[in-house]
Write a structure and sequence with these properties.
The protein is of the alpha+beta class. 61% of the residues lie in helices and 7% in strands. The protein is built from 51 helices and 19 strands. Strand 2 and strand 3 form a beta hairpin. The C terminus is likely disordered.
């Protein structure tokens, strides 16, 4: 752009202007001072889907569940953002998250850039989100903030600060308090406002002239938080005449007093006062970079990025290939897919092409020899820029000793070697100058060289020596002397000042010294000159570690003037400056602001948003803000401006910051987009690395069809790979088919590979192929061929001494033996595999080792070798703990818990391992599983039966209850309420039992599941039914609540149970008439359902009931019906004992109640036969006594009477019973009892 000079005066005549005093004020940041508490800011989280980001109800419910689950995790959502802000208040009924006043200012940029939404997506969305393909409707989260509320809160915070910078929303007049005329501010003007205090009005101070005014109500809005921070307060000049044209170098900003210009006629470059020129034309510049080198902070090197991506992706996939010897999993059913021939044809075609190929394609361009040459070329400039060494010799006369220094410094233009001279570091004085013991000698040497340069009129050397002397004086706090040297360096006569970087260094150091000496007028003038130079000179050199203070002033003026381009340029310079000073945390706000400015219209055609997001991500990472870093690189990869390099850079960023060698889910969208961008572009090595990584990622997530599709697409692309690469692809393809229940497809691939003979001698790949072929054959049922392939794989491992692969092949053979029923042989083979695993070093084999230990433990337990099974399970757990593998620790713990709960019950051990399992599950943040384990542990503690155990069980139950409430698992919640009430009943706190049961019922009713409500009501009644006290309370649950529901839903099994329980309860309560219809109903239902056991129980209970009611004939009838349903012959002692008791009872009914000793004797004889079969001597004593009494008193048969009497006496003597009374008066009375006394 050209400008014309006016009026007719030289730039050497100028009047220094200084900005108003208010620009010197740097207000204290609002988040660094005590602020009274203000209401929380509501933030709504909305689940959306698709490109139009429409609300999704189903996803919203999932999001609510995730948020409820996070509430109980302790850390909450606040730790997500890794920024000082916290989401303090959670209001789940409204699904809002609260932000305190300290977070408002720092939330503006993350909200503006959309990082908060992506941070929440990283935490709350599962693998379905990350693995969704581009053609699917991608889900997401939107953070919705009420802008009006946010602005009001922000304004309120600033008003509490006492004063703030604001922008007038309308033109307005203020009553002047400093002059006679009123203060007028136009719409858009920025001024310093003070809110009303104790009835006063608004006070405003103009930033243009410092005038003040007041107004009852001001129309003002605060400037943005970033701007609020910065709105507080010679020979270098170009000579020209009026009417001459001056070309603007860099940016011309009307807010600055100077700009850098080039004389159109002479070509000279210098500072030009802005007020002395008039632009020929104006345009709003959007370019903040002056050359390509400045774009380094916001650029991506394509070739280097590709090489890094290939290396990282290959490293990740090598983790999968290191376990190329796979363990055989569970057998599965075959699926029939008819495309066998198509697959065979594809594999044969590729293998044929590969066999005919003479030269293998290199795996990566990173191994290209040309890269070494490029590295050498990059090192050459560094060698050229190496500093010479100057020896200090004060005693020598003449200037010959200074000639090397003069030769080094006396250059008119800037040289790369001057970077260390102008830079803020003092390393130059220690590395380039030698021969001095103290710093005073160095100062003396430089002073002498300065004088020698002056005498020889070496002006450039003299100026630079003055600059070095100034640096030495400044570091020794001799600021006045440093200022003299700098002013001398600036005033030495020269034709033109062509070294602009030197000029910037002089003015920047002068500005800091003027500021230190409180020479505000000169400080502002130097800052203005630095501003003009920074707007036009690229390749920044930081000349003082206090240079940010100079640029702060420049930034304030740019903000006040509303010049977006200059503000963006200064933000870039500040970021670059702090990076040079290695003050990474200070970079963040400037890069954020720069990105926000470039995202706003009109933006910049020279600034690619994805570049900025990547730079911002790197800055976040260096500052420890990991979640924001991930969100930033995700924006970089998925932004419309993203290229292949951006996707690969984002992938590398994530892989470099993930511990271990696994591929994180977050890279899936980047890999998909990179593949889409690579379509038709060649780059076969890169495409293979991306496809294999994406395939392994999909395989790990169980998306086997998608993983297969990925590899087949790779093969269809005509990949010109090396043999090693192709082997990698084929082995992965075969395993995917086997793992995807397509073993025949896997066999096709493996047999084609074997027939192609791609190796000339035994190789690990050959053994892996045989091992995998054996697994496929095992799945299709060809056990003999599978055993042969396993044997071949083992022989290859022996030949190559591959201990890990050998152990895996042995384990697979052991699993094959187990399948065919050779358990002893399977045990020995698996034990050999375990011994081999135990001798291996490193971590790569641990996963397979743990799996084999679990399989061996399961085999031992199934064979009854419980101790060996325990050892294997505990060994697996210890190995998993040693290698920090959480998933395998959980599996081993589950096996141990199952072992101690069912196979060999041990409550103490069950509790120990359940506690460990609970700790592991809490690390996985699986709230549902955590609640289930807490529920199980509550049952375990209840089984201990002590008061202390009951209290512990209550704590676990309440913890599980809280989780079930958070997750809205209503059925689990209802039973947890009920269980809590039951534990309170066990603890004797009966006043709380009814309350908890009532809440459980209400929760069950809220589910709307009638069958569940029925089950819970029955369970509530069972609490009292199975208790020793308050059993009568069960009647209301059974009779009034559960039974009507069972009848209405026609649930016959439940109705049967309820009638049985009601009959027993009512009979125990002596309510025989009420119990009768329930018992009769139970009998009818048992017959209708064909429940023989329930039918026998119903007949027996009716017999007991009629016995107690005195209806002895009916009692005899139902007892006999119950006996008729007993199995014949009797199988268990309990059944024989039942015969003894029932026949004894029938004999008592006939003898005592119906007064028929003859029939009674028959029942007693049947009971005695059963008692003799059982060997119950006490029952035989009683029965022989009864029969002796009958035959002695009623059926006069002296022989039988004596026989039974003698037997009774023998049993009495053996049982130590002293007396047997045969008098009929003792027993001949009515006894309608429920039990006969025979136990």
């Amino acid at each position: 752009m050209l400008v014309h000079a006016f009026p007719s005066q030289s730039a050497t005549r100028r009047k220094k202007e200084s900005p108003p005093e208010d620009l010197q004020r740097t207000p204290q940041l609002p988040w660094r001072r005590g602020i009274p508490q203000v209401p929380a800011l509501p933030v709504r989280l909305a689940a959306v889907r698709g490109s139009r980001r429409l609300p999704d109800r189903n996803l919203q419910e999932v999001l609510r569940g995730k948020l409820r689950g996070l509430e109980g995790s302790g850390a909450g959502v606040g730790a997500l953002f890794s920024i000082p802000s916290e989401l303090e208040q959670k209001q789940h009924r409204r699904h809002l998250q609260g932000l305190t006043e300290d977070t408002v200012t720092e939330m503006f940029v993350p909200l503006l850039l959309g990082f908060l939404s992506q941070c929440l997506e990283n935490l709350l969305l599962d693998q379905d989100f990350w693995l969704s393909s581009p053609e699917q409707e991608e889900p997401g989260i939107e953070v919705l903030v009420q802008e009006e509320t946010l602005n009001l809160m922000y304004k309120g915070i600033l008003m509490q600060e006492g004063s703030f910078f604001g922008r007038c929303t309308a033109s307005q007049m203020f009553d002047s308090s400093t002059s006679g005329s009123d203060l007028y501010l136009e719409q858009g003007d920025i001024a310093l406002f003070e809110p009303p205090f104790k009835g006063s009005g608004w006070t405003v101070q103009s930033l243009a002239d410092g005038a003040r005014g007041t107004k009852a109500k001001a129309a003002v809005v605060p400037v943005s938080p970033f701007q609020q921070r910065w709105d507080g307060g010679g020979p270098d000049e170009l000579s020209f005449e009026c009417g001459e044209e001056i070309h603007v170098v860099g940016l011309l900003a009307s807010c600055f007093q100077w700009f850098l210009g080039r004389h159109e006629g002479t070509g000279s470059i210098g500072l030009v006062r802005t007020s002395l020129v008039k632009p020929t034309d104006t345009n709003q510049s959007t370019n903040i970079f002056l050359d390509e080198e400045e774009r380094g902070l916001f650029s991506v090197k394509d070739e280097q990025t590709k090489a890094d991506a290939i290396a990282l992706l290959n490293k990740s996939t090598q983790h999968h290939m290191s376990s190329i010897y796979k363990l055989a999993g569970l057998l599965f059913s075959m699926d029939s897919t008819p495309d066998h021939e198509e697959l065979r044809g594809k594999i044969d075609r590729i293998l044929k092409e590969l066999k005919n190929s003479d030269v293998d394609i290199l795996q990566s361009k990173a191994t290209d020899p040309s890269s070494g040459e490029e590295d050498k070329k990059e090192l050459e400039p560094e060698e050229d820029a190496r500093l010479p060494c100057f020896t200090i010799s004060i005693g020598e006369d003449g200037v010959d000793s200074f000639l090397p220094l003069f030769s080094f410094l006396n250059h008119r233009n800037y040289q790369p070697k001057f970077a260390s001279v102008y830079g803020f570091s003092l390393d130059l004085f220690h590395s380039a100058f030698q021969g001095h013991a103290e710093e005073e000698e160095l100062v003396a040497y430089l002073a002498s060289s300065r004088e020698a340069a002056r005498r020889r009129r070496l002006f450039w050397a003299q100026s630079r020596i003055c600059f070095l002397l100034a640096k030495l004086c400044a570091c020794r706090a001799k600021f006045s002397q440093a200022r003299v040297y700098l002013e001398e360096a600036l005033s030495i006569p020269k034709d033109t000042f062509t070294d602009m970087r030197f000029l910037i260094a002089i003015h920047a150091n002068l500005a800091i010294i003027y500021l230190t000496q409180k020479n505000i007028e000169k400080y502002f003038d130097s800052c203005e000159r630095v501003a003009a130079l920074r707007m036009g000179v690229p390749q920044h050199i930081c000349s003082t570690d206090r240079e940010p203070e100079v640029l702060h002033y420049v930034l304030k003026k740019a903000i006040l003037a509303g010049n977006i381009a200059v503000e963006a340029r200064v933000c870039f310079l500040m970021a670059q400056l702090y990076r040079t000073l290695e003050q990474t945390p200070n970079i963040v706000p400037y890069v954020e602001r720069l990105q926000a400015l470039m995202e706003e219209p009109p933006g910049s055609a020279h600034f690619i948003p994805s570049h900025g997001y990547l730079a911002l991500g790197r800055t976040y990472r260096e500052s420890g803000l990991s979640h924001l870093a991930l969100s930033s690189v995700r924006r970089a990869a998925l932004h419309p401006s993203a290229t292949l390099a951006h996707c690969l850079s984002s992938t590398c960023f994530v892989l470099e910051n993930v511990p271990g060698e696994s591929i994180p889910l977050q890279v899936a969208p980047y890999l998909r987009k990179a593949l889409a961008l690579l379509e038709g572009a060649g780059e076969h090595v890169l495409r293979q690395a991306i496809s294999m990584s994406l395939s392994h990622l999909l395989q790990d997530c169980g998306l086997l069809d998608d993983a297969l599709r990925c590899i087949h697409t790779l093969l269809d692309g005509g990949l010109p790979c090396s043999k090693a690469d192709m082997m990698h692809v084929f082995v992965s393809l075969a395993w995917l088919h086997i793992h995807n229940r397509q073993p025949r497809h896997g066999l096709i691939v493996l047999e084609a590979v074997l027939s192609a003979t791609l190796w000339n001698c035994a190789t690990p790949q050959e053994g892996a192929v045989h091992n995998m072929r054996a697994i496929a054959l095992q799945h299709v049922g060809d056990v003999r061929e599978a055993a042969v392939s396993y044997h071949t794989a083992i022989e290859v491992c022996k030949a190559l001494d591959l201990q890990h692969c050998w152990a895996v092949a042995l384990a697979n053979r052991g699993l094959l033996y187990r399948r065919v029923g050779a358990k002893s042989l399977a045990e020995r083979t698996l034990l050999s595999s375990v011994k081999m695993f135990s001798t291996l070093q490193g971590e790569g084999h641990k996963e397979n080792f743990i799996a084999v230990l679990l399989e061996l433990g399961h085999l031992c337990v199934s064979q009854g070798q419980l101790e060996n099974g325990k050892i294997c399970y505990e060994w697996a757990l210890l190995t998993a703990m040693g290698s920090n593998r959480l998933d395998w620790q959980l599996q081993a713990c589950q096996r141990l818990c199952q072992l101690y709960c069912t196979t060999c019950p041990d409550t103490t051990q069950s509790i120990i391992y359940s506690e460990h399992q609970l700790a592991l599950v809490r690390k996985t943040a699986n709230r549902g599983q955590e609640g289930d384990i807490l529920e199980t542990m509550s049952q375990l503690y209840l089984s201990l039966g002590t008061e202390r155990a009951f209290k512990t069980a209550l704590e676990y139950t309440k913890c599980s209850l809280g989780i079930f409430i958070d997750l809205r698992r209503k059925e689990k919640e209802a039973y947890a309420w009920l269980q809590s009430g039951n534990i309170y009943r066990m603890l004797g706190q009966d006043e709380l039992v009814d309350l908890y049961i009532q809440v459980a019922q209400e929760t069950a009713l809220s589910t709307g599941n009638t069958l569940f409500v029925l089950g819970l009501l029955e369970a509530a009644g069972d609490l009292f039914f199975n208790s020793s006290r308050d059993r009568e309370k069960a009647v209301s649950f059974y009779k009034d609540r559960a039974l009507p529901i069972a009848e209405r839903t026609k649930n016959a099994p439940t109705k049967l149970r309820l009638c049985n329980k009601l009959g027993e309860l009512l009979m125990q309560m002596q309510l025989h008439a009420e119990a009768l219809p329930f018992m009769q109903t139970a009998l009818d239902l048992s017959i209708a359902l064909g429940e023989r056991l329930n039918e026998r129980v119903a007949f027996h209970r009716l017999g007991v009931l009629y016995h107690q009611l005195g209806q002895f004939e009916l009692a005899e009838h139902y007892y006999l019906k119950a006996l008729s349903l007993c199995p014949a012959p009797l199988q268990f002692d309990e059944e024989t004992l039942y015969y003894v008791r029932v026949y004894f009872t029938l004999g008592d009914i006939i003898f005592y109640d119906l007064k028929d000793p003859y029939d009674a004797a028959g029942y007693y004889h049947l009971a005695l036969a059963a008692a003799m079969d059982l060997g119950n001597k006490r029952a035989q004593l009683k029965l022989c006594t009864r029969l002796a009494t009958i035959y002695h008193n009623f059926v006069v048969d002296r022989e039988r009477s004596l026989f039974f009497y003698q037997r009774a006496r023998a049993f009495a003597a053996e049982l130590h019973v002293r007396r047997i009374n045969l008098s009929p008066e003792q027993h001949y009375c009515s006894t309608a009892r429920y039990r006969s006394g025979l136990h």
